[in-house]
Amino acid sequence: MPALTPVNPERQRKKNRMKIGILGGGQLAQMIALSGIPLGLRFVCYDPVDDCCASTVAEHISADYDNRKKLAEFAGQVDIITYEFENVPASCVRYLNALMQEKGSAVFPGENALHATQDRLREKQLFEKLAIPTPAFMAVNHAEDLEQAVRLLGLPLVLKSRSGGYDGKGQSVIRNEHDLHEAKKAIKHDQLIAEAWVNFDREISIIAVRSRSGQTAFYDIAENTHQNGILSTSFNRPDDAMQKKAEMLAQRLLDELNYTGVIALELFQTGDQLFANEYAPRVHNTGHWTIEGAACSQFENHLRALLDWPVGSTRSIGYSGMINFIGELPPVSDYLSVNNAHYHDYGKEPRPGRKVGHATLVAASQDSVKKMTETLEAQNRGLARQ
Ligand SMILES: Nc1ncnc2c1ncn2[C@@H]1O[C@H](COP(=O)(O)OP(=O)(O)O)[C@@H](O)[C@H]1O
Ligand SMILES: [Mg+2]
Predict the structure, then answer these.
(1) Pairing with 70, which of 37, 47, 231, 273 sits 20 to 30 Å away (CA)?
(2) CB of 226 sitting under 6 A from ligand 1
(3) Top-level CATH class of 136-196?
(4) What is the C-alpha separation between 279 and 226, in angstroms, rounded?
């Protein structure tokens, strides 16, 4: 028998692994890295937070997003850059893009996709331009504009900061004269948008992927519920009547933005009409179910798209329900004792309103996944109240 070649540690170390840079080191970066490691990829995340959760699975550069020296170091180490959150400063992405372009690479998704979504007004104007229905809206620059917004949009309406908001932060609902009075007193800056309140039947989202050479695929839509503006549960909806319409709307965005990567489009449904709420140029919380519930997850497909590798199948494997763990984690044994339940602990410190983990349940029927998910979710809420 021939002798085995001994492992050469030097050779192992030098082996030229493709390195992906991720701006942000939160759970999305962590899940991107977890999906790419088996493909031979290695990751560097850039996040000012010292013990950010992706640092368990990626090299970590801990510096501010305006630290040019560190950003240049980051760009020098990686073959391609992506981001896990859309509030990353535009100047940082512009700088990195220029550096990456010098070596024939870039930041994906492109700056145009980020630019439109960093301002809710620009985002809604983009929807209008693309004939993607969206709730009626109006820019609010002064307290007086609010009166006009009420006349134009009616009550209730929702007032949102145009930039920087997430998980329902920076939003308030104006339901009556009293709320209006309070909101007028509270307005401190001129970067707000008022939106007509949509009395939706349900909230859905569609996650799409498009590779650098244009190969496109869509996941089954997800039906989503929120608690206090934060995503609570997502269920995939195979064979849903709204699937084709949602795909058509997402396709318009992909085409317009000449998009590369995974994108999520959040929609309100009333009757058989869809209204776009917002889009996210990244992997999305309403797509976490795809890790166990689809042939190829949104995270892996994001990487495949960036690298122009073949896009993986987006086909659902049965029916999935995803539960977000907000504020604290339920005991892992509650989930591991359930068949086909998958528990994800992001390794974050518990804090009210913080997403610290999630679980996905996969079942053979819509009914059973719904029952299982709702039981566990109610149990979580019970725990949170204790
Ligand atoms: N115009 C609206 N009508 C009804 N509900 C809304 C409206 N805008 C936001 N919401 C509710 O608030 C949630 C969070 O708002 P969203 O605009 O998606 O902000 P975020 O960036 O925080 O996710 C939505 O998922 C939806 O449940
Ligand atoms: Mg949202």
Answers:
(1) 37
(2) yes
(3) alpha beta
(4) 16
Residue written as tokens 């991720």? 22
Task: Check residue 189 and give its pLDDT.
Answer: 64
- According to DSSP, residue 79 is labeled S
Tell me: pLDDT of 5 over 90. no
Nearest CA to ligand 1 atom 20: 166
Measured from the CB, is residue 266 less than 6 Å from ligand 1? yes
**Would you state the structure tokens that stand for residue 90, as one six-digit string?**
């535009």
Q: What is the pLDDT of residue 384?
A: 67
Residues forming beta bridges with residue 42, ordered by sequence position: 19
116 lines ligand 1 (CB under 6 A): no
- 289-338 pLDDT, tens digit per residue, is 999 999 999 999 999 999 999 999 999 999 999 999 999 999 999 999 89
The answer to whether 242 and 121 have CB atoms below 8 angstroms apart is: no
Which CATH number applies to 15-107? Answer: 3.40.50.20
For the entire predicted model, the pTM comes to 0.94
Which residue has a Cα nearest atom 21 of ligand 1?
A: 166
Q: Is 86 in the pocket of ligand 1 (CB under 6 A)?
A: no
CATH 3.30.470.20 domain span(s) along the chain: 202-385
Whether the CB of 167 sits within 6 Å of ligand 1: yes
